[in-house]
């Protein structure tokens, strides 16, 4: 049994408590169990030469116990106390915790609904889906969660503006009140229209925001766009199109483009691989500059994402000032996620170094990359090869014959002529303008053919396409490796036991527990190293 160590200056504390000796725990397991009672005050007491842990209620109820020195105490700390209470209140939540939108519907209706029913905010992965599929998801989620909470993703699609515009049309038509905007390089008329079309003046003459925006960013220059009011030029254009009213255009000057800014660090999917410890404080400081400049009635909240997969990482974000935390990669292996069992199995085995950057389908021509799993798949290598060919040649025909044959045999598994035919079918359904732009433009045609492969690989990963396992594109960041390492030896090591809500509660409960340890440490108490571990145990019921 390890011992609690107390700094010399508190060893001879004059503060005394009367406690029944049997109420004091000295073993590591018993001390951890007491400290895990987060709704109760825990006391570190000294009895002779021994230092242990007891509940304050045991001391309060004792009139004939032994006199012991009170060295330190940890006050009650619930998961609801972590983060910004305004985020919780604004979105109607139980905790300052959100699950991000994993594209192609991986963040499924089932995931969003199961979270929403217990007061957690989850964002449906609308990116990459056709409008008809998004509309179906809206109907299902709104029926299950008529009062929320839920959000839908709005991804910037520079190559497919029609898809981005159609998503906004649906969100306005069905009254989707919260969107998570991601991958934006700047503002577009679509996100501005969504935001401003939800503005009105209340009976108290205040600006009322009915369309909420949570903007996911990884660069200060993009954050600045969302922290400022909508640009006047875009407002004027939307006015001309009669997409917004004159009053809404006027009200837009008084509110930022986003209510919440999610600072996305080293995440799965689209990411700049920035370290959270550097990026989050910088964006919080930037927020203060915009608040001082514009004097908004409600301060923009700044949350943290990317690398959040354990209690320690969540706590680190909160201690740096995050208003809320967002998880992503860890949820893709949960039972509610619409990923194949094969993909979930690979994710459950991943270590932190098992991720790599690879070309993105939606921004292929721009050279934008995203972070994917490299363990158990050849997708990253093949995607990089396609981009290398795209950079070096002006058309499919310019590619040397041996290279073209490799593509047909190993990557496409079909003739390039047949793949072009399937590519046209694909884009005629999604965005016919893409095919028009490729006419008489061989390099654009080549890009569309390569994007056919890049787009389908994530679809194959989700549906579990047999025979294509080595081509699966599985978005993931290092958080999944950290998560797997944390839950090793617990019931969550089994991927079939991973439920989004339980993962959320364990991360937040563990964060609150670790905060208690750090708080005691600042009082001069060093608990045994074995107490540092918070290992998830099955819930009998999800706590309130």
The count of helical stretches stands at 22
Strand content: 15-25%
Q: Report mean pLDDT, rounded to a whole number.
A: 93
Rg over CA atoms, rounded to whole Å, is 26 Å
Overall SS class: alpha/beta
Distance between the termini: 34 Å
* Overall 3D form: globular
Give short descriptive properties of this protein.
alpha/beta; 544 residues; eight-stranded parallel beta barrel
Question: Could you characterize the architecture of this molecule?
Answer:
The chain is of the alpha/beta class. The protein contains 22 helices and 19 strands. The strands form five sheets. It has an eight-stranded parallel beta barrel, surrounded by seven helices. Helix 7 runs parallel beside helix 8. The longest helix is centred in the last third of the chain and has 23 residues. The model has no long low-confidence stretch (mean pLDDT 93).
Map the helices and strands.
Blueprint: E1 5-6, H1 8-11, E2 16-19, H2 28-35, E3 42-47, E4 50-55, H3 56-60, E5 66-74, H4 85-91, E6 97-99, H5 109-116, E7 121-124, H6 131-144, E8 151-155, H7 161-174, E9 178-182, H8 189-196, E10 199-201, E11 207-209, E12 212-217, H9 220-227, H10 232-240, H11 246-251, E13 260-264, E14 269-270, H12 276-294, E15 301-305, H13 311-319, E16 325-327, H14 329-332, H15 341-349, E17 355-359, E18 369-373, H16 379-392, H17 401-412, H18 416-430, H19 433-438, H20 442-463, H21 479-487, H22 500-522, E19 525-526
Parallel strand pairs: 6-7, 6-16, 7-8, 8-9, 9-12, 12-13, 13-15, 15-16
Antiparallel strand pairs: 1-19, 2-5, 3-4, 3-5, 10-11, 14-18, 17-18
Helix pairs in contact: 5-6, 6-7, 7-8, 9-12, 13-22, 16-20, 18-20
